[in-house]
Design a protein that fits this description.
118 residues; mainly beta; seven-stranded mixed sheet; four-stranded antiparallel sheet; 0% helix
């Protein structure tokens, strides 16, 4: 069982930056994937990106590529989402999730709200 707690959301002006954190409790193995997702009001949940816990390889959605960076601190079981050059359309509830191995994302956090203003 894995529990996830996100933090770091808030209100920021367009063009600004935020860093989100996701702390995981429980065993995180090297073949797990730690993903970030977001959901804006009235829209479906959107994949943002992931990091593979062992090795640190990352993958991003086209909508955030070049602006967002995912990193991890294995010792602290924490994943970060550094968001730069934020746009109004990045406004959403951001959640982290864990996918054991090559399976589906099975564990989810409650999310942290990011609001980008003009």
């Amino acid at each position: 069982q894995v529990q996830l707690v996100e933090s770091g959301g808030g209100l920021v002006q367009a063009g600004g930056s935020l860093r989100l954190s996701c702390v995981a409790s429980g065993r995180i193995f090297s073949n797990y994937y730690m993903g970030w997702f977001r959901q804006a009001p009235g829209k479906e949940r959107e994949f943002v990106g992931y990091i593979r816990w062992g090795g640190g390889s990352t993958y991003y959605a086209d909508s955030v590529k070049g602006r967002f960076t995912i990193s991890g601190d294995n010792a602290k079981n924490t994943v970060f989402l550094q968001m730069n050059s934020l746009k109004i359309e990045d406004t959403a509830l951001y959640s982290c999730a864990v996918a054991p191995g090559t399976g589906q994302y099975a564990y989810w956090g409650q999310g942290t709200q990011v609001t980008v203003s003009s």
